[in-house]
Specification:
about 475 residues, alpha+beta, five-stranded mixed β-barrel, about 35% helix
């Protein structure tokens, strides 16, 4: 048995090698016979599988021209069946040798799963009642030289699916729905913000200094200026410059880059929405965020109830609001209103087996308690408020408790979706926080930011009271 298992990978590799050889030989024969699929530049498509099925009664007996990828084949004697997958789904093809050009039918029999075909035929229903297209003419538009992975145990590995998304889309067509919904969501967000008098803008991707978030940046070099520059880690600081310049409401949907770890929830480049509104605060941005998410859900899905990991998330109910101190007291049983010194916070961390670094302050340790005990408990939409100033370098302090800030994060299913605050518009306080961040960076914190002198200059011209969210 052990010997068989050792030979199996080698035998499978030989089988794959033979498949590749056969497919290339088929291509060579097509090219030598004057039927090179790569010479075809376009094909007249006037329908698709979903429309044919949705309007079958009107289309039955009428000619259609469709194109897509052959995903299965059966029969292949005098009568052949195959499934064609196009942009909207799949439909069965029915081909008879006596209803087609003989040479064309014989070529069709040799086509492989994965080949891209153009088909002209008539809509009809088979004896078994399946809506199909009776093939009159079939054209090979592109030869698939590699077999689809479902021939070899399917494409299930998450890493392989992300690396070869094009194959994932072919063999796991339900993934297409995610892409379609994403496009509709972004369109609905734009529609919502535009209707609320926000102006969409584009800000620089290359920055002299990385700022606006706690993240490690990608560094590149500008040859003409002979200086290092950073791919942006956030959109924030340039958007707030526009508020200084007199635009009351601005937003941007753009790519940001963070040179950090990778997993299914973290990518080194990702799309971020940031929006800023003058003359409001973090409460105003909370209301805007909740209404936007609810509105977009209804626009795209037709409902405010969505399922994630088997749990129904209700976006129609008012979102819960809880402070970080309240959450830690509720889920960890630790009351940080009674913690006055860093030494007390460190003692509590040790008692609860929470690892901290020497650079961490009391607010950092409160945040570590939240991440350890609370974050995964926030399943239904929850606004977390009252973040410590130690972890909020761009947020206004709370008037009644300056150790904390007017900031919120939105959590759903234990994950952070939004980060927002009443923007710090005091240039003197902002300089002090930038300098504290610079000291952390000098001490080895790769996520800390430098002092952005140009942004401080902008603040000194005057940033109105502003709410922002990302």
């Amino acid at each position: 048995m052990a010997e068989k298992n050792q030979k199996a990978p080698q035998a499978e590799e030989q089988d794959m090698s033979e498949l590749l050889r056969v497919r290339r030989e088929k291509l060579r024969e097509l090219q030598e016979s004057g039927n090179d699929p790569y010479q075809i530049t376009k094909y007249p498509v006037d329908n698709d599988s979903a429309n044919i099925k949705a309007n079958f009664d009107q289309l039955e007996g009428k000619p259609v021209s469709i194109a897509g990828r052959m995903m299965s084949k059966r029969g292949m004697g005098k009568v052949s069946f195959c499934d064609l997958q196009d942009r909207s789904g799949r439909i069965q093809l029915y081909a008879r040798k006596d209803e087609m050009d003989e040479a064309e039918y014989n070529r069709f029999k040799k086509y492989d799963i994965g080949d891209i075909l153009g088909v002209q035929g008539v809509v009809f229903r088979t004896q078994r009642g399946e809506m199909s297209v009776r093939v009159e003419k079939v054209t090979l538009l592109s030869k698939s030289l590699l077999p689809l992975p479902e021939k070899y145990h399917g494409l299930k590995d998450t890493d392989a699916r992300y690396r070869q998304r094009y194959v994932d889309l072919i063999v796991n067509p339900e993934v297409k729905d995610v892409f379609v919904k994403r496009s509709k969501i972004i369109s609905a967000i734009r529609e919502y913000l535009d209707s609320h008098a926000f102006l969409e803008v584009e800000t620089p991707v290359l920055h002299n200094q990385a700022g606006g978030a706690a993240a490690r940046p990608f560094i590149t070099h500008h040859n003409t200026l002979d200086i290092d520059m950073y791919l942006r880690i956030a959109l924030e600081l340039h958007l707030k410059r526009l508020i200084v310049g007199g635009f009351d409401r601005v937003y941007e949907i753009g790519r940001t880059f963070r040179n950090e770890g990778m997993d299914t929830r973290h990518n080194p480049e990702f799309t971020m929405l940031e929006a800023y509104q003058a003359f409001t605060d973090f409460n105003g941005m909370m209301d805007l965020t909740e209404d936007m998410i609810r509105t977009v859900a209804h626009k795209v899905l037709g409902t405010g109830k969505v399922e994630r990991d088997g749990v129904e998330i209700d976006l129609d109910k008012p979102f819960t609001r809880i402070s970080m101190v309240e959450a830690v007291q509720k889920y960890a049983g630790v009351d940080f209103t009674q913690v006055e010194t860093l030494e007390q916070a460190r003692a509590l961390a040790k008692e609860h087996h929470i690892e901290y670094e020497e650079r961490h302050k009391k607010g950092d340790i409160l945040n570590l308690f939240f991440e350890t005990y609370c974050e995964d408990k926030l399943v239904q939409p929850t606004f977390l408020t009252g973040h410590p100033v130690d972890i909020s370098p761009l947020s206004k302090r709370c008037k009644d408790n300056p150790e904390y800030t007017e900031r919120f994060e939105l959590f759903i299913c234990g994950g952070e979706y939004v980060n927002a605050f009443s923007e710090l518009n005091d240039p003197i306080d902002q300089r002090g926080r930038f300098e504290a961040q610079a000291a952390l960076k000098a001490a080895g914190d790769e996520e800390a930011c430098d002092v952005d002198e140009d942004f401080l200059t902008a603040l000194e011209y005057g940033l109105p009271p502003t709410g922002g969210m990302g």
